[in-house]
Every structure is written in C-alpha cells, then in structure tokens.
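To illustrate the input format used throughout this study, we show a single complete record. The first block contains the structure-token representation of the backbone; no residue identities are included at this stage. The design step must infer an amino acid for every position from geometry alone.
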C-alpha cells in the first residue's frame, strides 16, 4: 500500500509545476496589460456637469431613451431644463424615419422594404463654441413584406424602428463620451472669450422651439403600385 501511494504521488507530482507555471504566466500577463494602461471598460462620464437637450423632449420615446442613456453613462451630469444653466447643449438638428421598396414580385407588389432611421446632432458649449460638428448616424434594416398580413407587418415595422433607434442611442453615447469631446470642452473652457479656438466656429442658433417633424412615425406601408413614388 505504501509503495502504491508513493507511486501515485510521483505520477501526479509533474502536474503541480505545470499548474504553478500557468498561474505565474497569468499573473505576468495581467501585469503586462496593466503596465500598458489596459483597463476594463466601464462607465465613461461626460466632461461637463450640466447638459441641455434641445429638440429632444422627454415626452418622445427617442428623447426619453437618450435622457436615460445619458443619466446611466454620466450620473454626475445634470440634465437641466434651462439652457442658461447648462455647460453644454446637445442639439437635435434633424431626425427621420423612411422606407423604400427593394424587391417586387412579378405582379408588381412589394416583397421587401428597406427601413431607415437617421439622426443628426451637434454639441456646443455655453458660449456657443462647437464641440462636435453636425454628425449624422444612420441605421437600416431589411424587412420582408406580405400584404396578406398588413397589421402584423406594421407591428414588425415598429419593432424594427425601435431597435434601430436604440442602436442610434448607443452610438450617440459612444460619440459624446469620446476623448476628443472632452479635449474640445477643456480647450473651450480654458480659452478667453476673445481667443480663437482650435475647433470649428459656432453654428447659427436654432429656434428654441423647433417645429416637430413627423419624427419616429412609421411611413405607411402601401402595396398599391399606383400610390408608390
């Protein structure tokens, strides 16, 4: 029995150095990544303490999504209701939904639509300096169509538009929290009023109450060839 136990220990002993070597290699790898400045991706706050949303009302679904994403990404940034109290302003320049026919059957009826969502925005500071020029995000989805189930397809259309809107919100957050935005804000904040900044000049101020377009309203699915443009 003693001989058998000794043989077992001898046979299993090489596994211990291998396990120790694997742990040591992992520690060395972690140390190298840390030395290179590698960190786990987490919440990236906005560089300003207060933000005003122009043209993005909390009463709209997309505006509400943007506001919630901003609060989640930068809890210390206050979304103010008075632009005079904001260090920066996010301006919705334009937003739209559209669709186009991409496939017809032999009878001339639509078999597939391409759905599109587009959002253009700009970011300025309290003095009107442009932190981000007009930036346009677009997302598209293909949707097979069957005119025998119009109501079901209308519901599917709305679901696809909502998915695209959420994708645009995620892209917007990544853009607003990018390092170049924080750099532009710091340059603008530390520059005197009469000094030219290494950023684009301010754009003309839009109306405080822009006309609300038919934003995020589904275009009508119409399979009548006589009504198509």
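Output of the design step:
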């Amino acid at each position: 029995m003693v001989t058998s136990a000794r043989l077992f220990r001898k046979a299993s002993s090489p596994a211990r150095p291998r396990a120790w070597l694997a742990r040591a290699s992992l520690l060395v790898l972690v140390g190298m990544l840390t030395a290179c400045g590698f960190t786990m991706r987490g919440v990236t706050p906005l560089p300003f303490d207060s933000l005003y949303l122009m043209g993005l009302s909390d009463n709209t679904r997309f505006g509400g999504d943007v506001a919630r994403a901003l609060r989640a990404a930068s809890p210390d940034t206050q979304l103010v209701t008075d632009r005079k109290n904001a260090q920066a302003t996010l301006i919705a320049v334009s937003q739209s939904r559209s669709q186009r026919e991409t496939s017809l059957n032999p009878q001339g009826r639509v078999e597939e639509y391409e759905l599109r969502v587009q959002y253009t925005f700009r970011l300025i500071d309290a003095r009107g300096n442009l932190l981000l020029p007009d930036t346009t995000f677009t997302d598209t989805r293909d949707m097979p169509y069957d005119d025998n189930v119009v109501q079901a397809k209308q519901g599917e259309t709305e679901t696809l538009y909502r998915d695209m809107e959420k994708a645009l919100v995620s892209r917007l957050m990544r853009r607003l929290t990018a390092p170049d935005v924080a750099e532009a804000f710091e340059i603008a904040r530390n520059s005197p009023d009469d000094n030219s900044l290494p950023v684009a000049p301010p754009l003309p101020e839009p109306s405080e109450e822009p006309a609300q377009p038919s934003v995020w309203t589904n275009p009508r699915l119409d399979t009548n060839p006589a009504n198509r443009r």
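Structural context for interpreting the output: The chain has a mean pLDDT of 75. The first strand starts at residue 50 and ends at 54.
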